[in-house]
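Supplementary Data S3. Sequence and structure tokens for construct A.
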Amino acid sequence: MSKFFGNDTLFGRFFGQAGNVITMNILFIICSLPIITLGTAYTSMYYALMRSLRYGDTSLIRDFFHSFRKNFRQSALSWLAVLVLTIIFSADIGMFGPRGIYPFLPFYYLFLVLIIIAAITFMFAFPVIAAFENTLKNLWIQSFFLAARNLPSALAILILNVVPLYVSLTTPVPQLFGIALFFWIVGGFGFIAWVNTFLFYRIFKPYLPEEPAEKDLA
């Protein structure tokens, strides 16, 4: 039995990764409850997952809280910027959209394009903060150019982040909403971040400095 569930077996690796996903999901949800810390929790989740992918056997909980302290300011300011831009874009869509106060389709489609560009940049910004050290302005510029240079992966990351959450929130079937809610509470956020981590790490790897495993990722 021990051989069947050993760390080097398929089942052992599966349950180990499942445990990592659930652990990250719980920490992310708890640390996001004040809302203002959601960005920091998001950064910390990626910091821990990328270190685990890069170095193998690491302490996810230790790495999560290390990043939470280290990247709090940049992540909190980035999250505030996301909230402000979300309000601005929502107001613009509400004003110029087909059912808006002043319907004007050219502006509407322009804002849709800007929203997609901004959303992709948002998705990159927090993992970039987790992986690199720089000024906040340069980290956001770096996020934009990394996404632009890896557009297929960037679109896949956007779809992975947006579509499951959108479907969960908009489903008209109460039973499906209950299943979706259970999924997100148990491991949904952690699972999507875990999948995205492979894409982000492949994109970031050429720019990461060579470091021994005991050092920080960023």
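Construct B, processed identically:
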Amino acid sequence: MIKRLRSVCLILLVLSVVISSGCAAAEKSILLTFTGDCTLGSEEATRPREDSFDSLAASKGLDYFFDNFRTMFENDDQTVINFEGVLSDNKFQESRTKRYRFRGPTDFVKILTGSSIETCSLANNHIGDFGKQGEESTKATLDANNIGWFQNYKYYIYEKEGIKVAFIALENRTVYKEFEKIKKMITKLKETGEANAIVVCWHTGLEYRGAHETNTESTSQALIRYGADLVVITHPHVLQGIQVYNNRCIFYSMGNFVFGGNSAIRTEKFKIDQTVTSLYSMVVQVKLLFTNDGKYLGQLPVIYPVYTSSAAPVNNYQPYRANVEEAAAVRAAIQQDSSFELPEITADADGLSRMEMDYLAAFDGVGIPESEDDGPQGKPEASNPSPTRKTKGQ
């Protein structure tokens, strides 16, 4: 009876806030764009090949790769990518125990600056491909070109008109071993006013699986309960679903984007999971809304269906926005792992597809943990443990 009464009260709370806090109440906004995994470089063995990322950079120019999205990226406040690999002019400390190691020369930073990409998440399993020198070279190169980066406890603050958004990037070792520290960091950012909103980019999940894991879901929800306003997940290299929790979005996997690590695009279904293909991707834009004095009001997400190459099964490393007909398959890939009906596909004036989600007004007091042991349980799920999730988004 108590639980039923609590549920009714929560529903009434949500309805009252949604009714009273519409988009029109917002005084300030910040528009964020997120993509899937980006690798700007090649493996040492494949670099000389004609179909390598480096070879196309030489023949097509550095503005080629993100060309289909440059206008979109120029018109937002922050474009955020998961940067898989390193920027270094030498191959010292190459981690030969790893199967795949990706490196681009430091000059490739112009791919980012020339495409209006302002921020990089570095908490992933390829930032260490060339040891400490590769990681330090990457960070120094980004710093020298005024590109923000964030990694575990080194968060990044973006400020616009007095509104501050904190970006936190997490790798699984940090999440599973130090979740209490993460919770305290998120809580402190909000309580001290250092951040008006918090975005968590988490590198986790099972590679080439079309459904997210139970543990990933429960941990993402815990991050939101402790103060995150948006959770964006990368690593599986294929699309997974979307969840709305406490009126905040969780994007379980964005797929690949400009991915120099693979010269071919797998257009057929993966044997490991017959529901997915690496041809499909998405770009997500989320407008965060605030009162004039900085109170977070809500978010307005838009999904842009994407194909990772226009030359598939060859990877030409130049993703493009899908038209309405092409977007149907992308929507289906996301829908199979989502717990709600996705918005219908609509077309821009130029015929390119988009899916506009409803405005999600902020509210507090829902889903507050009743115990101290919530968060990740067991072993990290990335990158190759046995899957535990049997159902979708439930």
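The radius of gyration is 20 Å. The first helix runs from residue 2 to 20.
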